[in-house]
Amino acid sequence: MTLFVIGKPINHSLSPVIHNFWIKKYQIGLEYRKMEVDKESLPSLIEKVRKKEITGLNVTLPYKKDIIKYVDEISDTAKDIGAINTIFLKKNKVYGENTDGIGFTNALEKQAKFNFNDKSIYVLGAGGASYGIISELIRKKVQTIYVANRTKQKTIQLIDYFKRKDKSLNFKFADWENLSPNSDVDLIINTTSFGMMENEFLEINIKNLKDTLILVDIIYNPKETELLKFFRKKGFFCMNGLSMLIEQAAVSFEHWFNISIGNKEIEEVKKICEKSY
Ligand code: NAP
Questions:
Q1: By percentage, how much of the chain surpasses pLDDT 70?
Q2: Which of 21, 39, 100, 231 would you label with 205, given CA atoms 20 to 30 Å apart?
Q3: Nearest CA, atom 2, ligand 1
Q4: Considering only CA atoms, which residue is closest to atom 14 of ligand 1?
Q5: pTM above 0.70, yes or no
């Protein structure tokens, strides 16, 4: 029996480093591997989970949405987001879950002692990661969610999507061409992939920001995007995406093996990851 992370491309994935460390630690006697797959292979992989030939799957880009149609059931969280990243057998049904959002909030709560309740959050991006994080922000009862995205239409779609579920949610449209968060903002999250390439610098006007503002860039490779470097130099508390990656992995691990990963094991694997790239 094996576990796989599937996607295309998949070479960059740090998930095997994380899961194999915990698998070894708990003497589970399995191996977690990466597998680059085409869309056509998705149904047969799900069948292998059903037949217990595969213990579980993580799913990454570009299949987080496409694979939903092949599983039997998905969680309420996954329904909110419209994407899954973790698959396992539950009561003989192939079950899909999304652990990205909870991975993000766990990371912030632990690393920055951040309490989401009643906070104002400024979210950059309206792709898959943004939906995952926003669905969790809503669950945590934040006060206001500002959203800015390069493609304006996708910002409108995202706000409509969540407002259709709950009209009372306090969303505000922010202009991508003029990113200028107000002094009420407690947390800025970059969920776009802008910043992964060298010299990609997202310009944000910081003149209104409060000293206690936190910046999170969920990109983890490079370790510090230009945006993160800029905010760190200006004295703000900053975090990259590695803690989120590890926290979302810990939630997947618990689904597969019913083992809760503690803070010590999170920190151990973080050090290993940091050295591995
Ligand atoms: P996605 O669904 O493809 O969305 C990409 C987002 O990035 C969209 O908002 C897109 O804007 C924006 N974008 C892409 N290129 C841009 C550019 N040149 N200028 C401005 N905006 C640009 O991808 P995703 O799944 O949300 O992932 C986004 C990032 O999050 C990736 O870097 C991924 O590695 C990272 N991530 C990290 C974790 C973690 O655990 N740390 C988990 C999930 C994802 P448009 O709508 O205008 O195209």
A1: 100
A2: 100
A3: 127
A4: 193
A5: yes
